[in-house]
Amino acid sequence: MSSGRLSERTLRSLPREVSVPAYDRVGMTPGIVHLGVGAFHRAHQTAYVDACLSDGESDWGIVGVSLRSPDTRDALAPQDGLYTLAIRDSAGEQLQVIGSIQSLFVAPEKPGAVLAALTDPRIRIVTLTITEKAYLRAADGTLDGAHPDIVHDLANPRAPKTAHGFLAEALARRRAAGTPPFTVLCCDNLPANGATLHRLLIEFAALQDSRQGGADLARHIADEVAFPSSMVDRIVPATTDADRARIAKQLGVEDAWPVMTEPFRQWVIEDRFPAGRPAWEKFGVTMVEDVRPFEDMKLRLLNGAHSGIAYLGLLSGHATVDRAFADPSIRQFVDRLWAEAVPTLPRDAGLDTVAYTVELAARFSNTALAHRTAQIANDGSQKLPQRIVASALARLKAGLLPEHLSLVAAAWIAACAARGGTLPESHFTDPLDAALGDLFSSNLPTEEMTKAVFDLAGFAKGHPERERLIEFVATHLVHFKQGGPKLALAALGIGNEPPPPG
């Protein structure tokens, strides 16, 4: 039975085998504000910072900010920001209490407090994990200036809702006060994520400048603020009630929101931090001049395969990644998917794709994580452009076929259409759900419907190979409609079923 709640008071009573912060949390000062305090951040960046704090770098405490929900704050505030990181593989589980989160804010409740934290001169880095959809891009990749939250932030700069609004107002205030700007470090799965966020924030600031008649915040952000790109990698399944009960039994105290993860972790960062940074490289972070080759390898091999496993797994009745990957047909498909994606990666960057895919196969087979396929399936319209579509277009441009890559896009469409039928109505979600629902109910011919989905999601917009890619996806979609994933895979020579005639 557990006794009490994880906190500073109960920290020293935990079992010896549980790792706890090896530093004085009272003495640490804030150096980082993080926007988007979700499970991934708490399994990844906080763990690296925790190691730096243990090494004596006491001025890098994290101020966590939730841009939407109070759930994380409500769970961790009574625990003094402490929580358990459970590192799991088939051999067992290691528990580590992370202490690097110093304080927590919920932006909708206290936007002024968030802005005060961002303008604190001690804050030298702002990191973000807000998911792809929170960058509020239009179909062409530019800032969606008509989005209601963007419109709100432009009219209410002192009470923003979006990351763009908070960053722009904080940078404006720091500039007015003579405080050097912080470095903005994006940790989301966006292509060239630092450069992408830099461009979006300049676009936001330019809209703000035009409203204020002559202000030049956009130029300041363009010329004076560093936005290094980074690549992050660690599998973080959603925490279940069973996880909470198991962790509480091992700790002897309750933890409202422990985080599950795998032993593997990776962080590659472009080394541009004018205001300083923690010595992350001491703890396995790779500091580089250009992150793009690493980013492309991760997006196209890990994330691309994850999407394929998720949609094929859902359509095949597999609830978790390890179960889907154990399906011989899906495993064969993933190997072929990698074979298609690898030639689209840069050849002169020293990437060891053979070792990387061997490692990925072991990670996907981890039975201890129970990484749900429905969790990975969320927000496919935002994820597939960089995970799948970019590789498929690169193959077509090189005169190669994207048969397996294009099947992932078709599997996404088929899985979206299956909700409310063979899949539960809200099994996973997508920002385009309402519009997709209207499309699916229109009963358009398959190729017309595929083109309409591409138009809606902005896939391959303006690319000369767009129509050919649509043809591939539509062909796969016909197979999904006729015989589900078994027939779609059989058409590629995978599984026991012969391909359909014609």
From TrEMBL:
A matching Pfam family: Mannitol_dh_C
BP GO terms, sorted: mannitol metabolic process
InterPro entries in alphabetical order: 6-PGluconate_DH-like_C_sf, 6PGD_dom2, Mannitol_DH, Mannitol_DH/Oxidoreductase, Mannitol_DH_C, Mannitol_DH_CS, Mannitol_DH_N, NAD(P)-bd_dom_sf
Domain Mannitol dehydrogenase N-terminal: 31-282
Record flagged with keyword NAD: yes
GO molecular function: oxidoreductase activity, acting on the CH-OH group of donors, NAD or NADP as acceptor
SUPFAM superfamilies linked to this entry: 6-phosphogluconate dehydrogenase C-terminal domain-like, NAD(P)-binding Rossmann-fold domains
Keywords per UniProt: NAD, Oxidoreductase
Domain Mannitol dehydrogenase C-terminal: 290-477
Protein name in the entry: Mannitol dehydrogenase family protein
Organism: Mesorhizobium hawassense
